[in-house]
Design goal:
Blueprint lengths: L1 E5 L8 E4 L10 E10 L1 H7 L13 E2 L3 E8 L11 E4 L2 E2 L6 H4 L12 E3 L3 E2 L6 E4 L4 E3 L11 H18 L8 E5 L3 H12 L3 E5 L7 H8 L2 E3 L7 E6 L4 H9 L1 E9 L13 H10 L3 E4 L5 H13 L2 H7 E6 L3 H4 L8 E5 L3
Parallel strand pairs: 8-9, 12-13, 12-15, 13-14, 15-16, 16-17, 18-19
Antiparallel strand pairs: 1-2, 1-4, 3-5, 3-10, 3-19, 5-6, 6-11, 7-8
The chain binds beta-D-glucopyranose.
Length: 345
C-alpha cells in the first residue's frame, strides 16, 4: 500500500512509496484512510527539524491529523466496520509514569511517550493503519471531511479545560478572551471560547485571505493590530516571542495565558524576568504551556465540532488535494488555513 514517509532529521526525504500493510501488533482495528490534515509540525518534520522514526526503522510514516473508516474491528466492541474514526496521536510511555498510567498521556512525565506520525510511531498518512479501540475516537459521519479537524480541536479542548481548572482557584466568571493566531488551532480555540459564551477576539497579522471572514462569521472580532483591551483569558497560538510578550502584558489581574503555539527555537527574544515576576505575583496572573490531548479532550472536541456550523468548519479547510498532489500539499502557501490530503472521497 502507499504511504507518505520521511527519514527524520533529513530534509528532502519526504516520499510517497509502497510500504507493508499495517502489522497486526499495531492494533485490532483496521482503518482505511479518508484524509489527513497538514500542519506546521508536519512541515518541521519534513524540514528535518523534528521527529523520530520507530525503533529499528529508518523511515517514519507521517500524518497525525487523521480521518478514516473502520474496515475491521473485534466483534462485540464499540466500533464496527463503516464507523468514521480519528486516531489518537499520543500513546503512553511504557514505564508508565503516573500520568500515562491514568490515561493522561498528554501530561507524560518521563518523555518516553510515542506520537503517531511524529515520534517513534508510524502515522496515519498511509492507505491503511491499525490502532487499538482505546486510541480511536468515533466521529459523526455527518461532519464529512471536517472530522479531520478533530485533532487540532482536541489540542485546544485541553487548553480550555486547563484554563477552567486554573480559573476555579477563585471565583471564575471570565468575559473576554483573546486568541492570537488565526490558523486552524487558533480558529478552533476561538470556536470553543464562543461556545462557552465568551466575547472572543482573534489577532492575526493577515488582513486579507480567508481568516478575517472566518473569524467574523464565527462571531469573533478580528484584529490585525494587537488589541489594547484587557483579556481574562489569552490563548497564544503563534509561538512568536513578541506576541507572547504582548499576551502576558495584556491580560487582566488574575488573568490566564495559555501558551499553545510553537515557534522557531532560536528566536533571540529576551525575557525581563523581574518585570514578569512582578506582573505574575502582584496580580495573580498565570502563564502555562499546553500540548497534545488525551481521550477526554478528543471527546470534548468531538462534541464541539458537532455543535459547530458545518459550513463554517468546511471553510476552515482551504485546500483539499488528492494523494497524487502530496508534494503541493506540504508546500507553504499564502492564505492557506488547513490543507487536507484526500485519500478516499
Ligand atoms: C500535535 C500534537 C503533538 C505536538 C508535539 C502537534 O502538532 O498536534 O498532538 O503533541 O505537535 O509533537
Amino acid at each position: 500500500m502507499e504511504a507518505l514517509s520521511i527519514i527524520p532529521g533529513r530534509a528532502g526525504s519526504l516520499r510517497l512509496a509502497q510500504v507493508e500493510e499495517p502489522p497486526a501488533w499495531q492494533g485490532s482495528v483496521l482503518v482505511s484512510t479518508l484524509a489527513v490534515g497538514v500542519c506546521g509540525t508536519d512541515r518541521e518534520l519534513i524540514d528535518g527539524k523534528y521527529g523520530k522514526a520507530p525503533e529499528g526503522k529508518e523511515r517514519l510514516v507521517l500524518g497525525h491529523e487523521s480521518l478514516g473508516r473502520v474496515v475491521d474491528a473485534p466483534r462485540g466492541g464499540a466500533l464496527r466496520a463503516g464507523d468514521v474514526v480519528v486516531g489518537i496521536v499520543r500513546h503512553p510511555d511504557p514505564v508508565p509514569c503516573v500520568n500515562c498510567a491514568l490515561g493522561e498521556w498528554d501530561m507524560c512525565r518521563n518523555g518516553l511517550y510515542t506520537e503517531r506520525g511524529i515520534k517513534q510511531a508510524d502515522g496515519f498518512a498511509a492507505r491503511r493503519w491499525r490502532a487499538e479501540p482505546e486510541f480511536l475516537v468515533k466521529v459523526s459521519a455527518s461532519l464529512g471531511l471536517a472530522g479531520v479537524l478533530l485533532e487540532p480541536a482536541s489540542v485546544v479542548a485541553k487548553g480550555w479545560e486547563h484554563i477552567e481548572r486554573i480559573g476555579r482557584r477563585a471565583r471564575w466568571a471570565p468575559c473576554r478572551a483573546l486568541v492570537t493566531g488565526a490558523g486552524t488551532v487558533g480558529l478552533m480555540a476561538a470556536l470553543l471560547g464562543l461556545q462557552r459564551g465568551l466575547e472572543v477576539h482573534l489577532f492575526d497579522r493577515n488582513d486579507s485571505g480567508p481568516k478575517p471572514e472566518l473569524a467574523r462569521s464565527l462571531g469573533a472580532s478580528y484584529h490585525v493590530e494587537y488589541p489594547t483591551k484587557e483579556f481574562d483569558v489569552v490563548i497564544e497560538c503563534t509561538g512568536a516571542p513578541r506576541v507572547i510578550a504582548q499576551a502576558v502584558a495584556g491580560c487582566t489581574p488574575d488573568g490566564i495565558v495559555c501558551l499553545a503555539g510553537l515557534g522557531p527555537e532560536h528566536s533571540g527574544a529576551k525575557l525581563d524576568v523581574a518585570a514578569l515576576n512582578q506582573s505574575l505575583v502582584l496580580e495573580n496572573r498565570v502563564i502555562f504551556g499546553s500540548v497534545n490531548a488525551n481521550r477526554r479532550h478528543y471527546d470534548a472536541a468531538a462534541k464541539a465540532l458537532e455543535r459547530a456550523d458545518r459550513a463554517w468548519l468546511e471553510r476552515v479547510i482551504t485546500s483539499r488535494l488528492p494523494l497524487e498532489d502530496w508534494e503541493r500539499a506540504y508546500q507553504r502557501r499564502d492564505n492557506d488555513v488547513k490543507t487536507v490530503i484526500v485519500f478516499e472521497d
